[in-house]
Design a protein that fits this description.
Length: about 130
């Protein structure tokens, strides 16, 4: 639980400039999955999940099944910057980082950026040579 609490704080600190542009945001953990969600505007009907990050201390692995950036905030480096930040943390802890359950278009983009096939359906590994800029 210490690791999860530390990760929550680090992720919130990393995203603080973006999170402060939102009407509302929350960060919580359930079943070893950290979720960062928010509302862009007060009159938005529902929240969006900016990030879902699964943590497996047993397998020394982080899994990202969800990164969603609202349309008006895309192309600002928020998503790739977040993946890069989590990868840095993973490296320091000697953990792996994988992207899972991706859309086909995001998967194609990440393969072009150097994420590696794992042999597991719908799972790409982020490695040192993956272009996250």
């Amino acid at each position: 639980m210490e690791l999860i609490n530390a990760l929550e704080k680090l992720i919130e600190q990393h995203l603080k400039d973006y999170l402060f542009t939102l009407h509302h945001y929350s960060i919580y953990t359930m079943d070893n999955i950290i979720t960062v969600s928010g509302k862009r505007k007060e009159d938005d009907i529902s929240e969006f999940n900016l990030l879902r990050l699964g943590i497996s201390e047993e397998h020394r692995e982080f899994l990202i099944p969800n990164i969603f950036i609202p349309k008006e905030d895309r192309k600002k480096g928020i998503g790739l910057g977040l993946i890069a930040f989590i990868y840095e943390i993973a490296q320091k802890l000697n953990f792996g980082l994988a992207l899972v359950q991706m859309t086909d278009s995001f998967r194609e983009k990440m393969v072009k950026r150097g994420a590696l096939e794992t042999g597991i359906y719908d799972c790409l590994e982020i490695v040192q040579s993956t272009n996250l800029k």
